[in-house]
Design goal:
Radius of gyration: 19 Å
Number of helices: 7
Helix content: 25-40%
Shape: elongated
Structural class: alpha+beta
Distance between the termini: 37 Å
Order of helices and strands: HEHEEHHHHEEHEE
Strand content: 5-15%
Oligomer: single chain
């Protein structure tokens, strides 16, 4: 943002629905938030307004500033969020800032589903996810609290496969692998569990559900 929100705009943003980001305000307030990229108007009736990912970040940044005395670093203007697919080198840092970033990215993904799926559904992947399968599956897993693999430690790994619209998810712990399957199914993916013939390792094959 190039300038702070007005008091009235701040009240509208703070009062947004915590799950959907739905906004309520005067037409002028909502139009001002849309102009600043903090909200969007749903293309289908009743044309409600919702927070964009930037709007979610603005609200969360304000909340964190009020709740914590220490400063909160804003993400770099040129930075691009990347979900952790597992096995990154070196292992990226974790902490409250990362949790906030992941939470905001997942809310943004739900809004993207709402905007781009023909029926506005948020319970199944959208076109962006189908063209970024590994990142999309990894985001669903990380947002649900699953632990990505690091050097010498267990955790999930999401990898491309030769099959169209399918990714493989590896997790050495059987219970954790089944938990990953449940998370992906809840996020709108079709999931099956298989065994690699050579290594006998169990893995998931996941594809975005269309209906």
């Amino acid at each position: 943002m190039t300038r702070p929100l007005t008091a009235a705009q701040r009240r509208v943003v703070d009062a947004a629905d915590p799950d959907t980001g739905r906004l309520r305000g005067t037409p002028a307030q909502l139009a001002a938030l849309v102009k600043r990229g903090l909200a969007f108007r749903h293309p289908r009736p009743p044309h409600d307004h919702f927070l964009t990912p930037a709007g979610h970040r603005a609200r969360e940044a304000e909340t964190e500033t009020e709740a914590a005395p220490e400063p909160v670093e804003a993400p770099a203007a040129t930075g691009v969020f990347a979900a952790r697919v597992g096995g990154e080198h070196p292992a990226p840092e974790s902490g409250p800032a990362r949790l906030r970033e992941v939470r905001g990215a997942w809310q943004g993904m739900l809004e993207l589903r709402r905007m781009t799926n023909p029926d506005g559904a948020t319970d199944r992947p959208c076109g962006w996810e189908r063209s970024h399968l590994v990142q999309a599956a990894a985001l669903a897993l990380e947002a649900a609290g699953h632990r990505p693999a690091t050097d010498g430690e267990g955790g999930y790994r999401v990898r491309e496969t030769p099959q169209p619209e399918a990714v493989a998810v590896y997790e050495p712990d059987g219970a954790a692998l089944r938990a990953c399957a449940a998370t992906l199914e809840g996020a709108g993916w079709q999931v099956g569990e298989y065994t690699e013939p050579r290594t006998r390792a169990r893995y998931l094959l996941a594809s975005p559900r269309r209906v």
